[in-house]
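Dear Dr. V.,

Thank you for agreeing to look over these. As mentioned in my earlier message, I'm a first-year student in the group and I'm still getting used to reading structure tokens, so any feedback on how I've presented them would be very welcome. I ran two proteins. I've put each sequence directly above its structure. The first is here:
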Amino acid sequence: MISTPSKYPTAQTSFYEAVAQNYFQETCAEEIRMKLDTKALRYLTAEDWRTLTGVEQGSKNHEIVPTPLIVQLSGLRGGSGVHKCISNLAKVDLIARVKNAKYDGYRLTYGGLDYLSLHTHRKRQTIYSVGNQIGVGKESDIFVVASASGTQHVLKIHRLGRISFRTVKANRDYLRHRSSGSWMYMSRLAALKEYTFMQKLWENGFKVPEPISQNRHTIVMELVDAFPLRQIREVPDPAGLYSELMEMILRLARFGLIHGDFNEFNILIKEEKPDESKEAESTSIDNFASKSGLSVTLVPVLIDFPQMVSIDHTNAAMYFDRDVNCIKRFFQRRFHFTSDAPGPFFADAKKSVGKYGTKRLDVEAEASGFSKKMAKELEVYMREVGADGDGNGEGEDGGEEDEGHDESEDRLDDEATVNMRDKNEGGKKSNSAGAATQFDNNLEEEQIETILGVRSLTIKNHR
């Protein structure tokens, strides 16, 4: 471990208090943008990468990393070469200098963290090209990417801090004690938690995207050719779909987990052809499809796991009931369906934990590296900034939205949907990737379409 020169104050000293206001204003202006721009990625040299990595390492103990420390951490010979690299990185906003600082130094930006993560995925050969943005969440961005073999995947970039900056007045007291470094750390925790739980769920047969790789605040996962439930206006068998979703909530509970944000935003509906050889094992939706002569089966796929909690959590009953009630409200509002069966209830779900030889995935996740301390830190942050899942869905056209619905999320999602729809010739699904930015300097960009359905999708009894 490299020692810190005493003349350069750390983040815990009075220096941070002296420049906090100016630093916070600059950070707000930068982090609100938080857009992935890969244009400069192919032009970075090996020395640039080592310098950027040095800034990242120095950020663990410094809000503003002193320039001499960057030179030391980069391990490059000759200070002039490092200063040239610093200048190159600052020009493309991968690092930034804070005005009125008492010493010469730089801080790592979200753009710099994005590049470091992409660089690692490239070396792992999980990402070769980056395509169109296909989703915008409250605290994440979603992109289509491709491997060197041309296989398309999804890149999810966690952006914890975006909601914090948008609601800076409401969170002023909390944000006074936070920094961009801590937001980046929380984004890392969110990515680690989501990847860990997604991996455990995938290994145990849950319908989730296949996790492929995780680094820093990013996750690479399977690209699921499906529609978000919130975009679907009609289904042939609401009762069957409702039953399957409730069974998914109960099955998660048997494995010791509660999703915490189980709603129409985080459920994808995938169309699959029924397998006649497995007709006897079909779900209720499969049976309905075969009886009605349907050519497809509707399969719900669960996504988004940063807010997932153990069934032993203090507020587990509240999270469980919220998940159940959210689905009930959505089906009543969208499909005009109300189940006659009461529940499911948390007390019954709690009794089923570990039955039928099921594992405790909450315990396995902790053993795999995502500790209770990490979970507590992430939970406190997400609760303070309102990113722990609101459990609310989208209001119907002309109707009132549920109380507490996040209008900014709806607006962002609408804008993304409209933009993608305009590029996608009426909103038809496409299996081609997005306009790719190649990592290889010798390759040119390719023009390709995006994958996103129209907002008002109707699944009927015929294709």
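The second protein is here, in the same arrangement:
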Amino acid sequence: MIGTTRTLLRSATAILALLSNVRAAPTFDMSKRAVAFDYNGVKVRGVNLGGWLVLEPWITPSIFEEWSSSRTAVDEYTYTKTLGKAEALSRLQNHWNTWITQSDFNAIAQAGMNHVRIPVGYWAVAPIDGDPYVQGQLDFLDKAINWARGAGLKVMLDLHGAPGSQNGFDNSGKYGSIDWQQGDTVSQTLTAIQNLANRYKGDTDVVTAIELLNEPLGPRLNMAGVQDFYSKGSQIVKLASANFAVALHDAFQTDWSGFGEGVDSVMIDTHQYQIFSPDEVGRSPSQHVSHACSLGPKLASTNKWIVVGEWTGAQTDCAKWLNGLGKGARYDGTFPDSRWTGDCQGKYTGSAANLSADDKKNIRSYLEAQLDAYEQHTGWFFWTWKTESAPEWDMQDLLSAGLFPQPLDSRQYPGQCG
């Protein structure tokens, strides 16, 4: 999800350009589609289960705390390499057992959600000899499918990390260089997709969508190769079951019109954050709201299903290690090449209940605006369900503090998007 090389991106600008050339509201012919959710008539209201089957240091800093000074382990790759397979598996089994359980799925459903998006790395589905990663995640993914079924939730499976790393972000499994598309990495990724689709082709009553790859960093990749990968991956998924929708991340590109034609049940996934550049964190609360609202009509005019697959209540990048283990924030000027905008007090770690009154008002207003904007088309998945200590990002905590609307269409600040 989050990566330190976000400074290369302006995701908000990209989505504006992506959608600006579409003028009229589209019509859809879904008669041939057998997906077990009405993506044409019912809004996706979902949440990501981040930090569970793919580690992210900022979501669970306690797992990485012993390396806070040495920075020996900064992602799942270096975590498993540093500990060795036996110790890493022991620790991760405990984490997988406790971080997400049936009670989380029940709570998500009770809060009005109808979907979860579950990130998983290639190493869980198609491990490669020589990698330090450990396996065992699929046993918990199997449980998650059953928990979702019991709670009445649908599941999008999200291949969050590819061999070589598709973006260099720590959430891809390996922070640093972008080596996806080198050697056999693309074919290895397609094998992971095939294994994932084949494993869950009998569960399409619950698993309604498979996302081929999370956040391939288009500006640093061969985009013709990305499109070819998407075409081949879509065929693999649809051959496993015509009842899967295929989700394609927009790769931070400006124009995906016409892509995916000829494949039933294609869904574009775009991620919307306004915090990964100095200019974005420098926006006022009302500017954040205005920008979110401006996306609504553009999403609405897209000629395919489109979900905002990641978004947040955060108007700052203050959360501990959000920009990488040991790294500071743009908001308070402690991140390289940034400038001071404000104080991170209460937002670096803590709980939503203990935020200032102004912060609470701004988060609630911003959440409502985004809900109004993103439901102008297919819907959304909030990032993320829970964290150890990041109050602007933690849906469970935001719900408890009364900041995330309940019911989801409740508004304290109605009409922000016109």
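From my reading of the second output: Residues 223-240 form the longest helix (18 residues). Strands lie at 44-48, 115-121, 154-161, 207-211, 245-249, 266-271, 305-310, 379-382. Does that match how you would interpret it?

Kind regards,
E.
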